[in-house]
Amino acid sequence: MKSERVSWGQRRAGFQCLTLAFLLGWLSLGAGVQAASAPAATGGAAKSMAGSPAPAKLPGVTAAEAVSQVTGMAISPALGVGAVGAWRYFHTPAERRSELAWWSQPWFWVPALGLVLLVFVKDAAGPVLPKVLKKPCDVAELFENKFSALLATGAVIPLAWSISRSLSTDGGSAMTGLGLAAIDFSPLLGLLTVPLALVAYISVFLVSHVIQVLILISPFGTVDAALKAVRLFLLSTVAATSLASPNLGAAWSGLIILACLPLAGWAFRWLTFGQVFAWDIATFHRFRRVPAVTDNRAFLTLKLGKTPRRTYGWLARTESGELVFRYRPWLVLAVRSVTLPAGQYAIGRGFIHPELLQLDTPPGSGKSFDILDFPPRYAGHEKLLGQAYGIDEIHEVGLRAMWAWVRRSLTGTGPSIERVSAQA
To answer: Which ranges of 218-325 does DSSP label H, i.e. alpha helix?
Structure first.
């Protein structure tokens, strides 16, 4: 077992080092291009002062700016791709704007920025909006964030490819000065730039999207505003450093990417959690779904063995009465399973979704904790879940437990534990 953990750690560290080397290579190549092209740039500046056109932007600068643009798009897809598209549109001569990519055309970035404005208005009105109106808006924003990220991917791919061509073709004269003119870097750059740009983009987006999921499950408007402020601040640091210096912006973006790479798996589990919960709420799945006799969907709320928290899978009951959680890593790999600890269990009836509680843990403490979260599709079907897994108690949890306590305190009625019939 130990060798497997070390092997995985070595592979992850090697992948991070490869990404870091690629980013540093981007920066050093851009610096080399700038240094080798300094005489040409000086001459170009003199010509510009004499009335001739100014020299084109150096390819190293273009590559550095692209790193920041990809990072900004990943942090906030709608705002990032809309802002970058508008910036490119207004910094392109009028006669050449028709040659710009689709995401730099007004028919795309104007609606994208308009959507961002609507989200801002929703967030500004969040503290005064009732939950019955705000939460559906949060669900819609979660889906919008994913859809915007999918559209932004279409901008990342051609952007990364154009950068690789720029560094290998436009930098030919600079490479001559460095003594590397005989080497054709275009196949290698094309092979590395697009996949690594996509890996960087997806990793940063996954971590950033966790904020949307936390907003969805948070009952407090102030927490939502704070989470949005954190993401906006991070995005502003990328823009500010890139405007101050393209290489500084690329270096800061590279640090953000490296920080997000090891968190991608954790963030993917949160993305799955938010997607399932949002879909169940938006489609009123609880009215169309009845728990199966076994194999009902659930999320782990704690780490069991090597299975991490928030893993999405299904809960089964064996013939011997054991509860087994089965899942597919990354949703597509081979099925794995982990047996839940032996003990007494109860179904928790929550305000949005049911839970699986392990009672009296540690033994003699009288405490219980949540070991599994069932999706909202099972809300209202707690008795059927209990019958499916041989569990004979239903406990109120969360806001329902608070309300039950208030009701018992005022009226002396309302038991906190409900018994489940053994009949299926």
So the answer is: 221-244, 246-260, 264-282
Condensed to tens digits (0 to 9), the pLDDT of residues 272-299 reads 999 999 999 889 888 887 888 888 999 9
Residue 165 three-state SS: helix
Quickly list DSSP for 339-407: EPPSS-EEEEE-SSSEEEEE-SSSTTS---EEEEE--GGGTT-HHHHHHHTT--EEEE-HHHHHHHHHH
Total domain count for the chain?
2
The number of residues in the chain equals: 424
- The last residue of a domain, from among 280, 313, 341: 280
Last residue of a domain, one of 263, 280, 297: 280
Mean pLDDT throughout 123-128? 72
Q: How far apart are CA 258 and CA 266, in angstroms?
A: 15
Helix (H, G, I), strand (E, B) or coil at 296: strand
Q: Which domain holds residue 110?
A: 17-280
In terms of pTM, does the model score above 0.90?
no
- Render pLDDT for 16-35 as a digit per residue (tens, 0 to 9): 444 444 444 444 444 443 44
